[in-house]
Amino acid sequence: METGGKEKLKLAVTGALAGAVNGFFGGGGGMVLVPLLRGWIGLEDRRAFATSVAVMLPMCAVSAAAYFLRGGAELSAAWPYLLGGLAGGIISGISYRRVPPRLLVRLFAALIIFGGVRSALG
């Protein structure tokens, strides 16, 4: 991947869009980041998903800190999800290479559609 000025700008804009989605909606930056990494940056599927996870960890930490400092985070309600998320992250990280890339893309698309429909219907 080229790292010239134009490429660095694309990377920065991609990160900014994912960070904005993550900050505004309390998560979901990866839903923006993965398609941008695949289509705009040109990463292959597995690298796009893995890179998204690596980027989202510090991005989520920053968003969580901002919410917490402004009194908008309820940490006691987050613990069960955090523990479940850790388990899910470990399991998916271990089994990641066994899932065909095409299936990963389709599952990701289904998740985006499901989340969109659920959000639209309230």
DSSP, total strands: 0
Share of residues in helices: over 70%
Strand portion:
under 5%
Number of domains: 1
Q: N- to C-terminal separation?
A: 41 Å
- Chain-averaged pLDDT: 86
Structural class: mainly alpha
> What is the radius of gyration?
16 Å
Shape from CA axes?
globular
Order of helices and strands: HHHHH
Task: Tally the helices.
Answer: 5
Main pleated-sheet profile: none
Low-confidence stretches: none
Can you describe this structure?
It is a single chain. This protein is mainly α and 122 residues long. It has one domain. It is 83% helix and 0% strand. The protein has five helices and no strands. Helix 1 packs antiparallel against helix 2 and helix 2 packs antiparallel against helix 3. The chain is globular and about 40 Å long. The mean pLDDT is 86.
Q: Which descriptors apply to this entry?
A:
122 residues
In a few lines, what is going on in this structure?
This protein has 122 residues and is an all-alpha fold.
Question: What is the topology?
Answer:
Blueprint: H1 5-25, H2 29-41, H3 45-69, H4 75-95, H5 101-121
Helix pairs in contact: 1-2, 1-3, 2-3
